[in-house]
Amino acid sequence: MLMSSNTNIEEDDKDYISPMRQRPPPKGGDMAYINENILRQLRHYNEIRKVGGKDCVQDVYVRDPNTSGDNTRYWFAGKVARCTGTVSPKAAIARQINLLEEHATRIRPVELGRSFGRLEFWVAPGDTEVLTSQNDVGTRLQKVDKVVDGSDNVPLLEVGLDLSIVTNQGAGFYIIRTEDGVVPPNLIGM
Question: Is the confidence at residue 1, as pLDDT, over 50?
Answer without folding.
Answer: no
